[in-house]
């Protein structure tokens, strides 16, 4: 679509048309606040373009509850696959009058001297009183530099570009990384009959079901997903912690790497070096597997305690028994054995276009519940922005509603102090905020 936005002004500009940006739009629409949503591609683009063919949610469908649009399908306990997720978002866009400008990229954001912001886009320059940055945390696929040392005939791609086993040349495949993407892609290849080598990191795992229910349901009842980040003593560590690996594939099941190894998959520790055609791995496979199992069993302990405390009638269930143990010592792999590598090594942030001083020394936006030290500038959709569900289908609604209230209230200026060159803001208590009846 050809949009001409030059000279346009809106009370609020939302950058990003994924579930976070659309949720923000729904809240602003219901509040009668004039706004515009800018999307570089199409609404829900990340789900279309950066997910493999067999991708599905790892949380049950009943947790899909965007503002005013809870899951209404016939399988609340199931797990939507990629195309169903895209259809869910498309239906959400059709459910209300989203002022959406697709195919428009924001290239620079500046604060105006008298207040408000100027956005430079591929469709012209526009201004706004408030800006909500809903572009998410996954802008730049990360691949380690040691990838450059692999032989030229080895096909390499990031997990964001992986689609299916047939995409890769025949032969053995190395998957590096065991977050949710790495484990699920390794299983996808394994089920297709490919010989898989998996470099195992320190991500934790969780059981799919325990004592008669999906573990997500237990944790939801226990209030885990409603805990705010400020309740954790190690908030910074929690915010950047890897997600637990599990899958919703074929109705949902555990991802047990030990079972993969028992059935022929080759497991290694972290990939540390590529030299003269040989890949070297750290001697941490046993430790990583044990730690992942310990997290899963610890969650079961919490569920047991909750069941006992509430006096609930839930079936007993035997605990997990490891089905495979790794050999002692580090391992190596001849690069000549593999035809392809899938790098499941995460993403980096790209906020270079945001010319406003709201970032810490590591480039992470400083905020409290998405409210920055710059009056009128907000973030939405960040992992653990406030709770575990922030940025996900289950929790983004609460974050969007909170920011809408702040915008409605006129965004009282925060008390900003500068410490070591970084803006640090203090805010009024939430209960002191009273939203006006109308919006100018």
Automatic annotation (TrEMBL):
Q: What's the superkingdom here?
A: Bacteria
The UniProt entry, under SUPFAM superfamilies, shows: FAD/NAD(P)-binding domain, Nucleotide-binding domain
Pfam families in alphabetical order: Pyr_redox_3
Question: Keyword set for this entry?
Answer: Oxidoreductase
Tell me if Amino-acid biosynthesis is a UniProt keyword of this record. Answer: no
Gene Ontology MF: a single term: monooxygenase activity
InterPro entries listed in its UniProt record? Auxin_biosynth/cation_transpt, CHP04046_FMN-dependent, FAD/NAD-bd_sf
**NCBIfam families attached to this UniProt entry:** MSMEG_0569_nitr
Instruction: State the protein's name.
Output: Putative flavoprotein involved in K+ transport
What is the species listed in this Swiss-Prot or TrEMBL entry? Amycolatopsis saalfeldensis
């Amino acid at each position: 679509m050809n949009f001409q936005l030059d000279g346009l002004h809106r009370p609020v500009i939302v950058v990003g048309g994924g579930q976070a940006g659309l949720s923000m739009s729904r809240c602003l629409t219901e509040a009668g606040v004039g706004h515009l949503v800018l999307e570089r591609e199409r609404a829900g683009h990340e789900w279309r373009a950066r997910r493999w063919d067999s991708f599905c949610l790892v949380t049950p469908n009943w947790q899909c509850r965007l503002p005013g649009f809870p899951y209404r399908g016939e399988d609340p306990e199931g797990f939507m696959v990629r195309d169903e997720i895209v259809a869910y978002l498309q239906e959400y866009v059709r459910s209300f009058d989203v002022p959406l400008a697709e195919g428009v990229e924001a290239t620079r954001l500046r604060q105006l001297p008298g207040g408000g912001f100027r956005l430079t886009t591929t469709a012209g320059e526009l201004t706004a009183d408030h800006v909500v940055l809903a572009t998410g945390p996954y802008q730049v696929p990360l691949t380690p530099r040691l990838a450059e040392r692999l032989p030229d005939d080895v096909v390499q791609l990031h997990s964001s570009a992986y689609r299916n086993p047939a995409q890769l040349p025949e032969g053995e495949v190395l998957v590096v990384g065991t977050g949710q993407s790495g484990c699920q892609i390794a299983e996808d290849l394994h089920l297709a009959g490919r010989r898989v080598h998996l470099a195992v990191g320190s991500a934790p795992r969780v059981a799919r079901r325990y004592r008669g229910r999906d573990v997500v349901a237990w944790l939801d009842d226990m209030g885990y997903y409603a805990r705010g980040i400020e309740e954790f003593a190690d908030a910074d560590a929690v915010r950047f912690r890897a997600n637990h690996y599990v899958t919703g594939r074929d109705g949902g099941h555990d991802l047990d790497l030990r079972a993969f190894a028992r059935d022929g998959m080759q497991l290694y520790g972290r990939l540390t070096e590529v030299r003269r055609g040989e890949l070297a791995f750290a001697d941490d496979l046993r430790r990583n597997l044990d730690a992942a199992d310990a997290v899963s069993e610890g969650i079961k302990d919490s569920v047991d305690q909750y069941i006992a405390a509430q006096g609930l009638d839930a079936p007993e269930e035997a605990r997990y028994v490891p089905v495979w143990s790794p050999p002692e010592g580090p391992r190596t792999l001849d690069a000549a054995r593999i035809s392809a590598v899938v790098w499941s090594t995460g993403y980096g942030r790209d906020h270079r276009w945001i010319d406003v001083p709201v970032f810490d020394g590591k480039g992470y936006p400083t905020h409290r519940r998405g409210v920055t030290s710059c009056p009128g500038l907000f973030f939405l959709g960040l992992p653990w922005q406030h709770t575990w569900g922030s940025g996900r289908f289950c929790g983004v609604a609460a974050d969007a509603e909170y920011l809408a209230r702040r915008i409605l209230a006129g965004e009282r200026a925060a008390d900003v102090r500068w410490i070591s060159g970084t803006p640090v803001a203090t805010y009024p208590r939430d209960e002191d905020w009273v939203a006006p009846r109308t919006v100018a």
